[in-house]
Specification:
The structure is a single chain. This protein is mostly helical and 254 residues long. The chain is 67% helix and 6% strand.
Length: 254
């Protein structure tokens, strides 16, 4: 795969084969603005379905034909919202990698930063579906004697990881055009406020009165909606950055 920067918002692909299996040029294109719009629509749909699920279960209970509808539960694992978040992270990772491969200017720091972003979001994409933080939560809680806002104890090491990521991001943000700098910071702030801020509020409620109270569900919906919103903004900004100067991807026969 070869990536170069030119002046278009779509990504033309050249790939194909005739009846004998010999390759021939076949034009196809991916329109980045359309992809960004599709991501936004999908994000809204996933959140709305999660909200519907909360109202349905609390209104009619779990003894219905649809049971608890965990496939739409924003606070559950291994379901549609989790898959969607993982896909968004993977899209960010791939886009950042392509930017890194095709970077022509701006210095080594910017180029290596995009490589770092690609690695970080690939790891986050894997973690989202593997749920390592869920497996570590109880052992960490017991080891730290955590309670209250630290009931979900994974937020403790997460604080340090986020702090390191923010510090390492400063040189990158300084060298990034203002529009993207603002989008990246806003997206990150929304995501962290949801993933950690509302997780801590939920932890306080869970450790005090348990997870069965109705307002705990409201807290988790807001938390997950903010995470998806942050990822959607970030993915859109990265894709827009990728296409801002134009991009060309060619699939070639080796």
């Amino acid at each position: 795969m070869r990536n170069s920067v030119s002046d278009a918002a779509s990504l033309p692909l050249t790939v194909g084969a005739d009846g004998a299996g010999h390759p021939y040029p076949a034009a196809a294109s991916v329109n980045i603005p359309h992809v960004i719009s599709a991501i936004r629509v999908a994000a809204v749909l996933v959140v709305l379905l999660g909200v519907f699920r909360e109202f349905f279960v609390y209104g009619y209970g779990e003894e219905t034909f649809f049971k608890e509808m965990r496939q739409l539960d924003l606070d559950d694992e291994a379901n549609v919202p989790t898959w969607f978040s993982s896909v968004l992270m993977f899209v960010i990772s791939v886009s950042a990698f392509l930017i890194y491969r095709g970077f022509k200017g701006g210095g080594t720091i910017l180029r290596l930063s995009w490589a770092g972003i690609s690695v970080v979001f690939l790891a986050l994409s894997i973690e989202e579906v593997a749920s390592f933080h869920e497996a570590l939560m109880v052992p960490l809680r017991l080891m730290l004697g955590a309670s209250g806002v630290f009931h979900y104890a994974w937020v403790v090491p997460a604080f340090f990881l986020v702090a390191i990521f923010v510090l390492l991001s400063v040189p990158f943000l300084i060298r990034t055009p203002l529009r993207y700098r603002v989008l990246f910071v806003v997206a990150g702030a929304i995501y962290v406020a949801g993933a950690m801020g509302f997780e801590m509020i939920g932890g306080l409620v869970a450790s005090s009165v348990g997870e069965d109270v109705y307002y705990y569900g409201f807290i988790t919906v807001v938390e997950e909606a903010m995470e998806i919103a942050g990822l959607t903004i970030f993915a859109g900004a990265v894709l827009e950055y990728f296409a801002a100067g134009g991009a060309r991807i060619e699939l070639i026969r080796s």
